[in-house]
Amino acid sequence: MIMWEFTSGIIPFNNEAYDLQLSLNIYKGKRPEIIKDTSQCYVNLMKSCWNINPSKRPIALDIKNIIKKFSSDTFLGSGKVLEFFFKFRIMFESVSKSK
């Protein structure tokens, strides 16, 4: 959901009550609508993080490596998307250094 918030600039499901019903719906697979023009590589990573089966979600190190690769690839094009990837990269690098 954090990745979606980066692309939208708003909190997921901000027009709904944050209650048990929303929690159950998310548990059953409800996800916010993908923001138009979001880079496909970003969408793929975001969806993998949303996998209903937690064991199939990428671990933090995998996410870091994927984002590092994305941020160094030139095919991304959009400055906005690159900005998000650089924020993630900086966040993961600071976490890695603190260990």
UniProtKB/TrEMBL annotation:
One GO MF term attached to the UniProt entry: protein kinase activity
Pfam family name, one: PK_Tyr_Ser-Thr
Annotated Serine-threonine/tyrosine-protein kinase catalytic domain ranges read 2-64
Record Gene3D superfamilies: Transferase(Phosphotransferase) domain 1 (1.10.510.10)
Q: Which InterPro entries does the record match to this protein?
A: Kinase-like_dom_sf, Ser-Thr/Tyr_kinase_cat_dom
What is the protein name given in its UniProt record? 18215_t:CDS:1
UniProt source species: Funneliformis geosporum
The taxonomic lineage of its organism, from the top, reads: Eukaryota, Fungi, Fungi incertae sedis, Mucoromycota, Glomeromycotina
